[in-house]
Structures are given as structure tokens and as C-alpha cells.
Design goal:
The complex is a heterodimer of chains A (about 110) and B (about 110).
Chain A (H helix, E strand, L loop, with lengths): L4 E3 L2 E4 L5 E6 L6 E7 L6 E7 L2 E5 L6 E5 L5 E5 L8 E8 L8 E2 L3 E5 L1
Parallel strand pairs in A: 2-11
Antiparallel strand pairs in A: 1-3, 3-8, 4-5, 4-9, 5-6, 7-8, 9-10, 9-11
Chain B lengths: L3 E2 L4 E5 L4 E7 L6 E7 L6 E7 L4 E4 L2 E6 L4 E6 L8 E8 L9 E2 L3 E6 L1
Parallel strand pairs in B: 2-11
Antiparallel strand pairs in B: 1-3, 3-8, 4-5, 4-9, 6-7, 7-8, 9-10, 9-11
Classes of the chains: A mainly beta (about 110), B mainly beta (about 110).
Chain lengths: ~110, ~110
């Protein structure tokens, strides 16, 4: 069965640079969620989109923005990167907002040097 | 403030025995609970979920029990197999309150010993 696809899987950036992470949800899933997992931490909810509109916001820094496109894929844009942004970034998708289980992608490991 | 707590960072169980992973929560708005399994360098894999209107849900070797009055849930794995060795995350959401994001516990590393 098709799963959530995230790209790139690994990304290395310098401080103050920008990064864009991409997420392709499971086919027919219309809701996308972004999570950040720091070293030794639990995943923290950042933001979600339902039918291309932002539906909920968690602990996403102002330096980050995201959007969902007409094909339901989503991109997380991160600017002015800081060392503390180094983490695993997971995307999850579900069919319907708040009505179904979230299925996670393999994650993008971002390292900020 | 950790709203979902998994107080055992690790648990070691003999192969073939029962594994019991525990989770406590503090937010009474949570109405949907999930367990995820995670291997290193992979995303969390959904295992089983339970709505707050139920007290038990079973799927093969996995059973989740919910005690709303105690704000406690547990995941039972019977019998435990070597492939079950992984980090298990308890997660909760307040779907009735319109919140999308899952709140995770810090995880329990389950080690199945042969």
C-alpha cells in the first residue's frame, strides 16, 4: 500500500539558510500534518492543512511557514535556520480532518551547522 | 507540561510473554488515543487506537485498554515477539474540540529478549 512520501530524507544546512521540506500524502488523503521531533524528544505538532487550508496550528515558529497545494502535497518552508532547528520532521496524512488515524511518513532529518 | 506521560523509558520482556505498556494523560479534553511503534530512522507506524467512548479495543496480538476515570491507558501485546522490539509512543487528540495535532508521550523502548 502507498505510504506518505517525504523528501528529502536528509538535509544539511548552515545557520541562517532556508530549507524546504516536501510531503506527499497517501492517495485520497486530504489532510496533512507536520511534526518536529528533537533528539530524545517526542514529536511536537507544528501545523496542519485540510483541503488546502490551514486547519490547526501548534508550536510552529514564526520563521516557518507551510502550505498545501491543489494535489494535496504540502511543503514546510523554514527560514533563518538556527542550530536548534536540527530535528526529524515528520509529515502525516489522514482522510478527513480529525476523523481518522494519522499515518506518518519516514521523516526528513534536518541538520543545521 | 507533559500532557501525555509514559513513565517507563524502557521495558524488557521475554519472548512469548505479555508486554504491557502504560500511558497516563492529564487533559480531560482528549477523546481519542493511539499507539504508534517506531523503529530508528523510520516514521511512527500506527498500531491501534481507541475512542473515549470505549474501554477496550483489540486487534490481533494488540489490545488497548482505556480507564477514563483514572486517565490511564495501556497496550498489551500477547505473545511478544522479537520483531516487537521498538519504541512505542502513546498519543492523544481532542478531536471533539477541533484540535488536529496529536500530543505524544516520550515513548517506551520495548526490548523483547529471546
Amino acid at each position: 500500500a502507498a505510504g506518505v512520501i517525504q523528501s528529502p530524507r536528509h538535509l544539511i544546512k548552515e545557520k541562517r539558510e532556508t530549507a524546504t521540506l516536501k510531503c506527499y500524502p497517501i492517495p485520497r488523503h486530504d489532510t496533512v500534518y507536520w511534526y518536529q521531533q528533537g533528539p530524545g524528544q517526542d514529536p511536537q505538532f507544528l501545523i496542519s492543512f485540510y483541503e488546502k487550508m490551514q486547519s490547526d496550528k501548534g508550536s510552529i515558529p514564526d520563521r516557518f511557514s507551510a502550505q498545501q497545494f491543489s494535489d494535496y502535497h504540502s511543503e514546510l518552508n523554514m527560514s533563518s535556520l538556527e542550530l536548534g532547528d536540527s530535528a526529524l520532521y515528520f509529515c502525516a496524512s489522514s482522510l478527513g480532518r480529525g476523523t481518522d488515524t494519522q499515518y506518518f511518513g519516514p521523516g526528513t532529518r534536518l541538520t543545521v551547522l | 507540561d507533559q500532557q501525555v506521560k509514559q513513565n517507563s523509558p524502557s521495558l524488557s520482556v521475554q519472548e512469548g510473554r505479555i508486554s504491557i505498556l502504560n500511558c497516563d494523560y492529564t487533559n480531560s479534553m482528549f477523546d481519542y488515543f493511539l499507539w504508534y511503534k517506531k523503529y530508528p530512522a523510520e516514521g511512527p507506524t500506527f498500531l491501534i487506537s481507541i475512542s473515549s467512548i470505549k474501554d477496550k479495543n483489540e486487534d490481533g496480538r494488540f489490545t488497548v485498554f482505556l480507564n477514563k476515570s483514572a486517565k490511564h491507558l495501556s497496550l498489551h501485546i500477547v505473545p511478544s515477539q522479537p520483531g516487537d522490539s521498538a519504541v512505542y509512543f502513546c498519543a492523544a487528540s481532542a478531536r471533539g474540540g477541533g484540535a488536529d495535532g496529536l500530543t505524544f508521550g516520550k515513548g517506551t523502548h520495548l526490548i523483547i529478549q529471546p
